[in-house]
Amino acid sequence: MKSYPRQLHVFFNALTYYTRFSAPSWVEYSKENQAESTRYLPWIGLLIGFYTALIYWLGTFIFPDTIAVILSIATSIWMSGALHEDGLSDCFDGFGGGWEKQRILNIMKDSRLGSYGVLAIILALMLKYNALLTVQETVLIIISAHCLSRFFPLLIIHKENYVGLTEQNKAKVMTTHRITKTDLIIAFIPALLCLVFSPLVYISVLVPLLGLTFWLASYFRSWIDGYTGDCLGCCQQLSELTIYIWFCLPWFIG
Fold this sequence. Notes:
Number of strands: 0
Helix content: over 70%
Number of helices: 14
Order of helices and strands: HHHHHHHHHHHHHH
Low-confidence stretches: none
């Protein structure tokens, strides 16, 4: 039987966890591979970004931009199985309805969707839709947003402690591996590629993204002493929104 490099197994562990794509039959699944696979999250984002941007680009040849944008957003949600959107809604429910650590964690673990979660999803989709109708270089920004936004949650994993409720929690496996500097370098490569092929001024988006990430890490730490998988999904979604909104500023669309 042909052997494959271990990192290929690790990558496909990430692919099957973070997307609806299937992996070849020879892929080995293990807790170790899953734990290490977080280093490939921005690579997965790059893949999702390409597919999402392609749907948008093809859609503009057939439909008005309004329809093309909706199709691209729907594609990204389908490809990721709404994994990050679920984290956003659970996080808003938890921190919106909870008043102390255990209560917040219990609410986030609850599969039911509350008012804060519904409002967060609606507002996020509205902002994405309107921002993508406003930005210039839409294809490039879609690709960059999906890739870059999946890098910054890794900084939270790198610095903070996981505080999920149960050892059986699926996200626990993905976060037991403390992100190393090597992991961050590997994860940043696709993000760097997006920046290299963008106008130089686009690098300015790193400022609000870093500010948002450090604020979220501090906020999560002050309330629950760390983070959960839902917190990471929330970070991804808010980072993606930050990118879209940043490029709606007057000097980018003037």
